[in-house]
Specification:
mainly alpha; globular
Amino acid sequence: MRAAGVVEHLFRHSAGQMIATLARTLGPARLDLAEEAVADALEQALRTWPHTGVPDNPRGWLFRAARNRALDLLRRERALRAKLPALADLDLSGEPDTGDAELAMMLLCCHPELPQASQVALTLKTVGGLGVGEIAAALLARPATIAQRLTRAKRWLRENDHVLELPPTGSIETRVDSVLAVLYLLFNEGYDPSAGDVAVRGELCGEAIRLGRLLLADRRTDLPRARALVALMLLQASRLPARTDEAGDVLLLDEQDRARWDRTLIAEGTRIFAVACTGPELSAYHVEAAIALCHAASGADGTDWQRVLGLYDQLVALRPSPVTRLNRAIALAMANGPAAGIAELQLIETEDELAGYPPLPAALGALWLRAGRLDRAADYYRRALALPGPEPRHRFLRRRLAACTRPDS
């Protein structure tokens, strides 16, 4: 792998770990300094590795570079010089153990005194490694709004003297719910990117799964709904090898080669989901994992769409969001025909929540195409193409629009 590719991989998989480790020593109030040190270390790697070669332990190299950069920055700030010995004594000789620090960082970012929107943005930025634009797209918000949320959240961290440790047991569960919401968004941004020139960002999916496993590794955060979410992500990730064609374009579920689905991930997801279902708790993540399992367990005859539709009815009751209703309408169309799905989607179309949401006109285009109304399908595909989105999605929509002009489509 080229040096730039190694750095990008490490940025996605290790930046949050390095920031959490430094913030534990410096204090969360100096999160900006920790982020600056890590960013500088990554920039240093991009400058030097193409000439010197990738080191034998690139992750350890980056940790040491970030630590050394933090030392340089600390020496300039008189008020923080007392932390120099602790930072200098960080043991980075081997593979750094950052699990506790990352878990504590996730839970701190989801502190109840922060507004929920700020919790999500701060966690996605600090632990998930997403940029402001990526967070804005994932949250259906403007980049300026996300930047303001991050600024306010970091100001709150500076003004409140918190230690980067796990909170008391009694306050953990509510914070876990916020962490789960963040991991759900992080995974979805990898599974269906909102911007860029790739159809799938597997490294984001893998990072969401890794962080989810951190929750399961600690008995205080190993909750049934956390297990259900990890199971859901594993089951969805099992389809990633078949989700794009050789050109990197998206393949729909009925176009995928199911032999390419990762059976190891399906088995692990099924096992974790079974454990998640041993108690009385039923969360939206449980229902979504059950839907994913319907697809994973389907045979040559395909998915049992009537079963999926029944599960979506449960999901709408648990999470009555416009996006959930959109997905239920698609399942309804698969189970009962395109006319039923079109009727549901046209009701959603009259509401404001999904204005400018590309999957809505794209779904209507697909259902009108199935119904044989090529003119209506073409109109909706044009609407979807007029909205911002990643290039692979636009290529897919252009192909579908072209199909609307062919008599044999």
